[in-house]
Amino acid sequence: MTFSGPVSLDTALASFDDLWSPRIVTRVNDYDVRIAKVAGEFVWHAHDDTDEFFLVLDGELTIALRLPADDGRESAVTLRRGDVYVVPRGTEHRPSSAEGASILMFEPTGTVNTGDHEGDVPEHITRTTGSAL
Amino acid sequence: MTFSGPVSLDTALASFDDLWSPRIVTRVNDYDVRIAKVAGEFVWHAHDDTDEFFLVLDGELTIALRLPADDGRESAVTLRRGDVYVVPRGTEHRPSSAEGASILMFEPTGTVNTGDHEGDVPEHITRTTGSAL
Could you tell me if A33 and B53 are in contact, meaning their C-beta atoms sit under 8 angstroms apart? Predict the structure, then answer.
């Protein structure tokens, strides 16, 4: 971890416009703190090796889920500004935001945002392990 | 990770008044997401085995630091609402907040908030690995 100063999330969010293209704000041990702007639908995917933490900084985020406890039936949680949620590892999920949202995520460095999603991704999505601010 | 629903940080913060006594909001793999209300001064300490992530949810937090890059001379960063900062592992630091603040932290489960601080802690501080909401 290289020493660096405080980062304003508002300033960081104002520095890019790309949707579904997480920026790495800082690192904590071998984890990234990533922020992203999102609107519309992401792809269904799971991360077999890690939980995924979401904090909504602005707007509203819906996460469709296929939880093992529900025998894989589709359900959804809706997160508003200031809400946090953890998608358990191995859980198929699809984030979306009808009106747009800004989110913060905490996940192991190197985690691919599309997880185990196979094949192409729609043009509005960047398949990435996060890029620098 | 047990499945549980979204958590509103505002609701979580409204559920306790203790200062310098982190509550565990959720877990991400073997990390805790903790929130705390703080006011006045914490104790100088370091975490030799982990970086420590701070996000200011409300108010203003000052972190006094003795950075190796500064030959251990004391410096400080001030974080306002929406600012994030990572104290690198092994770095002596002392959080404080003259007017009070609410903060969110990521750190490995089991991390003691007072780190390597030896001896007693002042009565306004709880030495803890975080408690349940």
Answer: yes
Neighbours of A78 (CB within 10 A): 14
Q: At A44, is the secondary structure helix, strand, or coil? A: coil
Report pTM. Answer: 0.94
Q: What ipTM does the predicted assembly reach? A: 0.93
Beta bridge partner(s), residue A63? A77, A95
**Which alpha helices (H) appear in chain A, and where do they start and end?**
9-14
Residue pointed to by tokens 């104290």: B87
> Is any Cβ of chain B less than 8 angstroms from the Cβ of A87?
no
Contact A4, B91 (CB under 8 A): no
Q: Is A10 helix (H, G, I), strand (E, B) or coil?
A: helix
**Chain A interface, best mutation among B3, B24, B30, B91, by max A CB count within 10 A:** B3
Q: Which two tokens stand for residue B115?
A: 């780190």
Q: Which residues pair with B99 in a beta bridge?
A: none
Residue A20: count of CB within 10 angstroms of its CB: 23
Task: From first to last of the 133 residues of chain B, give the pLDDT tens digit.
Answer: 344 789 999 999 999 999 999 999 999 999 999 999 999 999 999 999 999 999 999 999 999 999 888 888 999 999 999 999 999 999 999 999 999 999 999 999 999 899 989 888 888 888 999 999 8
- Rounded Cα–Cα distance for residues B14 and B23 (Å): 12
SS3 state of residue B16: coil
The residue count of chain A comes to 133
3-state secondary structure of A79: strand
**Rounded to a whole number, what is the distance in Å from the CA of A50 to chain B's nearest CA?**
6
Structure tokens at B27: 């877990």
